[in-house]
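Archive entry. Fields below.
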Amino acid sequence: MATKKKTDQSYISFGLDSFGDIPRGTDGKLLTHAAAIRQVIDEAVLADKLGIDTIALGEHHREDFAISSPEMVLAAIASKTKNIKLASGVTVLSSDDPVRVFERFSTLDAVSNGRAQVILGRGSFTESFPLFGYDLRDYEILFEEKIELFAELLKEKPVTWSGTKRASLDKADVYPKTESGHLETFVGVGGSPQSVIRAAKYGFPLMLAIIGGAPERFVPYVDLYKHAAQEFGTSSDMIGMHSPGFIADTDEEAVKIAWPAHKTNFDRIGRTRGWPPITREHFDYEVSNGSLYIGSPETVARKIAKSIKTLGVNRFDLVYGGGPMPASARLHMVELYGTKVIPRVRELLAEQSGDASK
Amino acid sequence: MPANKTLAILGAGKLGVVLTQLALRAGYDVYIAGSGSADKIALSIQVLTPGAIATTAEDAVAHADIVILALPLGKYRTIPADKLRGKLVIDAMNYWWEVDGRESEFADPMTSSSEIVQDYLVGARVVKALSHMGYHHLLDESRPAGTPGRKAIAIAGDNDTDNQTVAALVNNLGFDPVIIGPLARGKILEPGHELFGAHVDKKSLLTIAAKNED
Ligand SMILES: NC(=O)c1ccc[n+]([C@@H]2O[C@H](COP(=O)([O-])OP(=O)(O)OC[C@H]3O[C@@H](n4cnc5c(N)ncnc54)[C@H](OP(=O)(O)O)[C@@H]3O)[C@@H](O)[C@H]2O)c1
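PREDICTED_STRUCTURE:
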């Protein structure tokens, strides 16, 4: 069944994504930030054992998430794992320095024997801007310029570049070089068509962040990416999606754990952005028709298989453990994802395409 | 064929694209513009909203019966104000500090952002609408009139005829229109208020609006 080579574009890869949400211990209390980070490391180690393809860690700079330096955590994971890809998800390039991002991830690539992956994005949170001294009014231009520079750096040749938001570079060579000569880099996008076109322009694989609403609405974006890639003469072979979810032994159990955690998470973010508390009706809608992959292994597997097929993507990452969940439930979720959901999704996809022989 | 059948949508991002999709489906002619030249958005428009005409803001406005503002609020001063004189303008913009910045005139809790926009657009008739529902809810939840549970869109404007015109458009786009009062009352639709983000039916919308009577 899953014996396809991972470089084959019909191979579907599965990942787990986290921002380092703070879980609860057995006493019901929130863990410390430090313990939350160690929890993610434990989960990644388990994911590696179970053959899950990728762990992607995103940066946040706020109290409810422990991970602000994903590559530090990824380096720790690297030393304890063998095969799992180590990705950021996303690296907020606008408020970072492309040269440093390259250096950190090429270092991670060295440490992990070539398993590093960068997912660049504008990020839907912007706390990093004031923190690092960037002006939100430069939101667009910062990303535009920095992604251009990053694309140059990825060639791993001396770079000559100039822009308006960062010092120019004159034949600057940046180290360490990767052994493969290629630091794998995706671009993460939300609903902005300009971002999709930008990813195609530089020939970066696309990662769709689908965090609400019906996944079908992204079909036109996949088309747009392919059209744009064709126009720019770049490749559009790799398209992934990431969406939030949670798995437990039964649908009831999964909802029982995920609903309060999701609500806490959503409402806390909503307070800073000015949207009202989430209702149970909205949550249920997202679970049944939208973009929350919550339920038993069978329920979640069916939903994932449907999205993969509808959108024609070859990568699915589950954003797991959103909100203050019991730490033990999270570990169990990783286990169910690796042992039940992923094999079941592969089975469903093979059944549908009628070539269960591969 | 709807009356006021030509729309100009300024902003070709998440919201602009979805509104264009809904409007085309409802039989409108749509001219859509981003911040720059037409070719910058041509491909997105061709693929995402085939049938719409990608152009510049000035050209879009020149054709339109109704202009919809779907650009970041912080950029409102880049709207070609003189070209909008005499037009009916729907303000769908919100103050979103994460893109518009914290140090903004919109941070003032007393004035509604649409009043500031109206002050800038001298001679235009600004109505606030299509601002409180997230873009993917707009896309997912558009329904024909009479569908049980159809979601509602609030409208705030100073002129009754204009409000009615906008209501007809909202209805054609797939939502129950609810006129909540004059432009200043649009404050209750803004981020930080209970109706912001609301994707509820007419009855619930009216209930929440009544609760937020000031
Ligand atoms: N996203 C939602 O769910 C939602 C819902 C309701 C209301 N809104 C409001 O709608 C507005 C747009 O939000 P969005 O999420 O769609 O943002 P977005 O995806 O960032 O898109 C913004 C668009 O506005 C364009 N633009 C900038 N200056 C312009 C100008 N002077 N004339 C014409 N177009 C211009 C941008 O073009 P360039 O790329 O060329 O700069 C871009 O196409 C905001 O005020 C937001 O608060 C959003």
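CURATOR_NOTE: The interface with chain A takes residues 12-14, 17, 34, 41, 43-44, 46-48, 74, 96-102, 134-137, 139-140, 190-199 of chain B (CB under 8 Å).
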